[in-house]
Design goal:
homodimer, 549 residues, Nitrilase/N-carbamoyl-D-aminoacid amidohydrolase, Rossmann fold, 2 domains, seven-stranded mixed β-sheet, six-stranded mixed β-sheet, 17% strand, elongated, C-N_Hydrolase (chains A, B), Gln-dep_NAD_synthase (chains A, B), NAD_synthase (chains A, B)
Chain lengths: 549, 549
């Protein structure tokens, strides 16, 4: 039996484009002699469709799309994923389903049992977990078809009390197929391989796994669909961050063969390389799926905006990136020069708009109220917010989307101005710590200097008052980021972090700053997620709370 | 047996204040001769603690607080709610538990079985549902203790496949006690009474129900704890929106007696009265629990800012409200006069800052880019954003929190400026449709004119260009709000709404506007929730989606 795995880029709620993609893929697989073509979890509507799933009309549109797809399945079978109504009046109204379609009809329906409901996942919000498990017989082979998380319960301290494969294995299947929607994080590929390999070995079955690729606002799906033989050995691995279809043949002894040269990755990419490719896809799909082409950003001469500018140039083409230099009286000469050098190196568009007359106008308007009170954060933020007003005016006039350039370290401790530099349609590096931003800059410069060397080596500064340095208010970034990883990603207590060798006072200050900044992060743009714990939908915190503040 | 129900206002993560409140209440109940005092669900840590629950230290602090509380329970028993570790390695790491404490020790632990995970609820994100149900014997009575949602499965199309009381009733309990964290919506009190009454009648048992009171950022808990006899008749109802403790005695025949005059509500409040009281509590607790006292807002002369100003005056005292008049060249004379009249009527503080020189500065800075392009939304938004920069500068200088004044109708269709009038620490009327805002204004003026009559009767306008009216861009608010209720609260399709008699073109335009504005709503402040479906954590939508756009 020849099986095609189709790793495609869907668009949430775009039934026309998703259905066309799936049908085109079915026709192509048929021409290539496949018996079965397998698509990803919830491919019909895109993932995550979130509360669109609560609209009956949306579910009907999924059903209509499935009927169109089914009509194509003559002389070829397919597996698609879609939400379907739960026929039992008790429990949630929907199931997260896979259809096995053959001869133009739905031959079997598999419902997902293990519903992820942590981090960015909300599946128990919509779906009733399945409690019935049946294999599917097709062309002399018995298939154990499961959906994503259904195989993720072999770990220590599992999140669920059931394991669908423990039931299915008793029916003597020949192969496991798993359809998934597993989002990217820089460490997720190896975790995925380990867990899926463990399943193949544990159940002594070959395993074919197909994932989404493409970004849906903040979530980036990295593809990397996988094939294992029955010993758990990785037999094939599809490319990451791009659409791909490949063909596999099941042998009678539990093995897998395939015709094309193996795409198995020999040298895995570093975290930073993966983050780079993830962010490029994230920017590209955000613009493409929103129907926009042109990005704008403020270029300060600092490393954050430089890295975002270079990423946008790569994702959208430099001709579609407008970099705006917005100097104030506190901007240093090197900042302007560094920004200009970057524009030249990258070949993007640029404009310069000085903000001094604007901030003067604000300050004189406020003179009766502020009288002779000293210059402080109020005046600092006026600069940052004036820049945002200018950039947003350019967006409104010319149809750009503003790219936010805040990094994860500053987003964590609230070192940014709400409605100022925290503005934007999408945050490009909001899940990238400052120390990683430096690594990204080095990676961007791997072949030639795009980001000026001076931008990389000079001490970071917001330049909102004379001679300001980030380290005036914050620990060195090496220290700050190390503490933040322990707190945000590992959820350690202050005592545990101090025990690792960090200064008591510094740790307490950092954790307090993180918790005090929840109200700021609540209002920031969606952040492209590249880590296992990004700010945004995957980290849900009270604003008015007292813990650690 | 004499039972005290303590309806208290907790603060998330504020273990010291929550524990002190609970202990004070235990001592008071003991003095009043109670055998048992019952507190609300998760009272130890506050509700919803959200991802604080993922921090082991946070769970340890809950345990430490429970130990302190237990030490007080000599000659009196109590029921408290807290998260506890799940001892089974399979499943989620926590349970949503109730401790029955007697003689200084935890005598019984009840874990919640039905975990709400819809709208604003995320309980399956943290908790493993219970599958074991046991009554508690205390002083000759057998108590069926359940937690909130555990009793909410008697409705048609239930969300869960189990019903804890069906097991507990077989153990012949004498009384049901339910501890809850049930947030306010204008129609939720009657729903609560109906469902709990149905439980009392169905199981032929008296039922004591204790709820949270107080606001946690966007969620307002309204109290209104309830007592039913075994026929399902409402025996007592605690006050709404305020702390309260009351005492009840179980009789041997399944009845309930109580000493104080009944507080049973004879005439229920209208939706608008409830919304008014909810918003007052919401504002008050947001400031109090954040440690702030002073609010600021921009006063345009229009009805939205007038209503918010009056609500803030009531919640915080007019001396703690700073209203800023920010006229532009498009502001009408009546706007300034109406705003000044409101300030006078209310007795709040005010300042006037004209924005024309600021917008001029922006426009001349952008002249090279904008050249001779016509005045459009770019210049309109510059006005709105300049006002936001001024208000935020006042916040930064003097320590105010900015109140957002957007209503639900304009938030729905995106009729507002991101980083402009959509700014603020908390959105006061973001869950109140424009037609309801008018009703609120009339209610605020019930005893005397606070909001000037002209503000109520003039046609709404953003005044960002000459002679602008809201109806230039939007349908009349009566029509708009009626369509929005159908779409947002009832999740009807366009076809279903059109069938109700609305014009095809108008319905499609409104639904399209709602979906296109997701990116704006993503970045708005938390919104005080007063309806069953507010924007914010209870409505989770894709930004880059294609459905209905």
């Amino acid at each position: 039996m020849k099986i095609a795995l189709a790793q495609l880029n869907y668009h949430i709620g775009n039934f026309e484009s998703n259905t066309n993609k799936i049908i085109t893929s079915i026709r192509e697989a048929k021409q290539n002699g496949a018996d079965l073509v397998v698509f990803a979890e919830l491919c019909v509507c895109g993932y995550p469709a979130r509360d669109f799933l609560e609209f009956n009309e949306f579910i009907s549109l999924c059903d209509a799309a499935a009927k169109k797809i089914a009509a194509e399945c003559i002389d070829i079978a397919c597996v698609i994923g879609l939400p379907t109504p739960n026929n039992n009046p008790e429990g949630k109204d929907l199931n997260n389903s896979a259809y096995f379609i053959e001869n133009g009809e739905v031959k079997a329906v598999v419902n997902k049992a293990l519903l992820p409901n942590y981090d960015i996942f909300d599946e128990y919000r919509y779906f009733e977990p399945s409690t019935q498990f049946n294999c599917i017989d097709f062309k002399g082979k018995r298939i154990a078809l499961t959906i994503c998380e259904d195989l993720w319960n072999t770990i220590e301290n599992p999140l669920y009390v059931t394991r669908p494969m423990d039931t299915l294995i008793k029916q003597n299947p020949d192969v496991m197929i798993n359809i998934a929607a597993s989002p990217f994080a820089y460490n997720h590929d190896e975790e995925r391989i380990a867990i899926l390999s463990d399943n193949a070995r544990r159940y002594n079955l070959p395993l074919l796994y197909v994932n989404h690729v493409g970004a849906q606002t903040e979530l980036i799906f990295d593809g990397g669909s996988l094939v294992f033989d029955n010993t758990g050995t990785l037999a094939d691995e599809m490319p990451y961050f791009t659409e791909h279809t490949a063909y596999y043949t099941l042998t009678d002894n539990g093995g897998i063969t395939f015709e094309h040269p193996t795409t198995l990755i020999v040298k895995r990419e570093s975290d930073i390389e993966q983050i780079y490719h993830g962010l490029i896809l994230g920017i590209r799909d955000y613009f493409y799926k929103s129907g926009f082409k042109q990005a704008i950003l403020g270029l300060s001469g600092g490393i954050d905006s430089a890295v975002v500018c270079a990423l946008a140039g790569e994702a959208l083409g430099p001709e579609n990136v407008m970099a705006v230099l917005l100097p104030s009286k506190f901007s240093s000469d090197h900042s302007l020069k560094d920004a200009e050098d970057l524009v030249k190196n990258l070949g993007c568009k640029s404009e310069t708009v000085a903000i001094e007359k604007i901030t003067d106008a604000f300050e004189s308007a406020l003179h009766p109220q502020f009288a002779n009170l000293p210059f402080n954060i109020a005046e600092e933020n006026i600069q940052s917010r004036s820049r945002a007003v200018l950039l947003m005016a350019m967006c409104n006039k010319f149809g750009y989307i503003l790219l936010n350039t805040s990094n994860k370290s500053e987003a964590a401790v609230g070192y940014g101005t709400l409605y100022g530099d925290m503005c934007g349609g999408i945050s490009v590096i909001g899940d990238v710590f400052k120390t990683q931003v430096f690594q990204l800059a080095r990676y961007i410069n791997r072949d030639r200097e795009i980001i000026p060397e001076n931008t990389i080596v000079k001490p970071p500064s917001a330049e909102l008052r004379p001679d300001q340095k980030d380290t005036d208010s914050l620990p060195e970034y090496d220290t700050l980021d190390a503490i933040l990883v322990q707190y945000i990603e590992h959820r350690c207590s202050s005592a545990e972090i101090i025990k690792q060798g960090f200064a008591d006072e510094v740790v307490r200050k950092v954790l307090r700053l993180v918790n005090l900044a929840e109200h700021k992060r609540y209002q920031t743009p969606p952040i492209l997620r590249v880590s296992p714990k990004a700010f945004g939908m995957g980290r849900r915190m009270p604003i008015v709370g007292k813990y650690l503040t």
